[in-house]
Amino acid sequence: MDFRDFLNSGILCDSHLHLSDFEKGQVELINNPNYFCISSCHSKADFQKTQKLKSDSESNIFISFGIHPQAPDEGLIPVLEELLQDRKIDAIGECGFDFFTDEFKAKKEEQQKVFDVQMELAAKYNLPVVIHGRKCVEQFFANSTKLKKCPSVIFHSFMGTAAEANSILEHGINAAFSFSKQLSNNNKKAIECVKTLPLDRLLFETDAPYQTLKGEKITAPEQIFSVYEAAFNIREEKDFFEFSAKISDNFKKFIGK
To answer: What is the pLDDT of residues 161-185, one digit of tens each?
Structure first.
């Protein structure tokens, strides 16, 4: 079975990708009503292109807009506020913290400032947030009070341990943890999370066209099916359709639809 056969009667949900980096004809799933996704935007041009793809599509595209921690530009705050006021987006993000390089670490103050604004707006407009985080798990605990005020929090490509994920939940944050192709790359932390976290806290993604494996030039949105397969096998589930239906329920719950 491949994703074409599966989509005749099942639903696939990609909790994080960037459709603005594709043309409509490049995404086979775009015209399938059983495909759901959250597409993140970080500029006006990203948003406008994604909005056009959504209007021309038969799939279920939800749009998020956020100020990325790698480029914490305060000049984007009015753009985000306008989109929120006009009710044109379904989530805020991806946003968060990234201390993966010295260059990113040097922007810690700027990252915190735009993060705070986005958390305030998420609470004000009652929208979910999509979180980006690298080398920064401690920041989520330091900001747990702000995250608790958000209706839901999706940790995109979560890179922490299962113990850290459970601690985030214990802090009262209504969180889901999303995983991608690292499940096929022997990432022990991700595999342990998928294996042991409650099923109703799991989501899956491609981060297309990013998060490539060795030898790949890009990640295709259609690879969400292989992520599902990897997670299904890791959890030793019995029925693929039942498993995917539970993930679909999670997606709809955490995106608030």
So the answer is: 999 999 999 999 999 999 999 998 8
Ordered DSSP codes for the chain: --HHHHTTT--EEEEEE-GGGS-GGG-GGGG-TTEEEEEEE-SHHHHHHHHHHHHT-SSEEEEEE---TTS--GGGHHHHHHHHHTT--SEEEEEEEE-SSHHHHTTHHHHHHHHHHHHHHHHHHT--EEEEEES-HHHHHHTHHHHHTSS-EEETT--S-HHHHHHHHHTT--EEEEE-GGGGTT-HHHHHHHHHS-GGGEEE---TTSSPPTT-S---GGGHHHHHHHHHHHHT-S-HHHHHHHHHHHHHHHHT-
Q: What is the mean pLDDT of the chain?
A: 96
Range of the domain at 119: 68-255
Q: Determine, yes or no, domain membership for 45.
A: no
pLDDT band at 257 (very low <50, low <70, confident <90, very high): confident
Q: Could you tell me the CATH number of the domain that includes residue 169?
A: 3.20.20.140
Number of structural domains found in the chain: 1
